[in-house]
């Protein structure tokens, strides 16, 4: 029996096609290998270039040497010269000899301390409340009460409202006996305080108070009674 060859299995007809496919594969492989080698070379050159640039940017710091401080200025030497003189040589002063002797025309000058009379000034300003001799109304206390009864005018407002009682007035008897700075310490109203001040201001001069035999300023408190009859 004779074997017949299948025409589909005949490779001779396709030899040219396979040859072309092989050449194409070889060409593609060559191109790929070439590109890989060139890419690696470029990357290597780029890395080397960056490394060289970084080395150039490195700043080398140098330590500055500290200079020693300048030497202090030389001060001139101060020398003291002493002159040696003989014992028998006379020494004279530039202002001339001083004569300590007192001649007949010289007068002895006595310096007396000036006494400042501070106590007198204090007494002129100070107002006493307690003294050795109290100030006195002319004629005494009986005359004072009579003066108040004769000169006080009962205020109409106090009379209408039946206001009675005592008003306390304080004032200063000066060294000449005059009355100064009268004011009301306690008032009962109705115009009684104003009336008491008016009467006190119109009083004649008193006999001034005395401390250690000298007239002084004295604070005096006076009760003034207001009674309806």
Give the gist of this structure:
The chain is an alpha+beta fold and 229 residues long.
Task: Give a short account of the largest sheet.
Answer: 5 strands, mixed
Q: Can you tell me the CATH class of the domain at 139-226?
A: Alpha Beta
In round numbers, the mean pLDDT is 75
Fold-level CATH name of the domain at 139-226: TolA/TonB C-terminal domain
Helix content: 25-40%
| Strands, count | 5
Alpha carbon gyration radius: 67 Å
Uncertain stretches: 89-102
The DSSP helix count reads 5
Multimerization state:
single chain
**What's the CATH architecture of the domain at 139-226?**
2-Layer Sandwich
End-to-end gap:
190 Å
**What structural class is derived from the secondary structure elements?**
alpha+beta
What shape does the CA trace take? rod-shaped
Beta percentage is: 15-25%
What letter string, H or E per element, gives the SSE order?
HHEHHEEHEE
Write the layout of secondary structure elements.
Layout: H1 15-57, H2 118-125, E1 127-128, H3 141-151, H4 156-160, E2 165-173, E3 179-186, H5 192-201, E4 209-211, E5 214-226
Parallel strand pairs: 1-5
Antiparallel strand pairs: 2-3, 2-5, 4-5
Notes on the protein architecture:
The structure is a single chain. This protein is of the alpha+beta class and 229 residues long. The chain has a domain at 139-226: TolA/TonB C-terminal domain (2-Layer Sandwich), CATH 3.30.2420. It has five helices and five strands. Strands 1, 2, 3, 4 and 5 form a five-stranded mixed beta sheet that branches. The longest helix has 43 residues, at 15-57. It starts with 14 loop residues before the first helix and ends with a strand. Mean pLDDT is 75; it is low at 89-102.
């Amino acid at each position: 029996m004779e074997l017949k060859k299948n025409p589909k299995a005949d490779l001779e007809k396709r030899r040219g096609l396979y040859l072309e496919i092989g050449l194409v594969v070889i060409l593609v492989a060559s191109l790929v290998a070439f590109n890989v080698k060139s890419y690696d070379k470029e990357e290597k050159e780029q890395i080397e270039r960056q490394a060289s640039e970084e080395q150039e940017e490195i700043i080398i710091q140098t330590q500055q040497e500290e200079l020693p401080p300048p030497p202090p200025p030389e001060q001139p030497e101060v020398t003291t010269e002493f002159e040696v003189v003989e014992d028998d040589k006379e020494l004279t002063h530039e202002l001339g000899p001083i004569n300590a002797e007192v001649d007949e025309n010289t007068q002895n000058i006595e310096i007396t301390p000036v006494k400042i009379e501070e106590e007198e000034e204090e007494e002129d300003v100070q107002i006493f409340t307690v003294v050795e001799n109290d100030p006195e109304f002319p004629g005494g206390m009986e005359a004072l009460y009579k003066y108040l009864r004769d000169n006080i005018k009962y205020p109409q407002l106090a009379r209408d409202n039946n206001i009675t009682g005592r008003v306390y007035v304080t004032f200063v008897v000066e060294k000449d006996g005059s009355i100064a700075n009268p004011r009301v310490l306690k008032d009962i109203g109705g115009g009684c305080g104003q009336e008491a001040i008016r009467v006190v201001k119109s009083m004649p001069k008193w006999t001034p108070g005395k401390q250690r035999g000298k007239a002084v300023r004295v604070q005096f408190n006076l009760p003034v009674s207001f009674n309806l009859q």
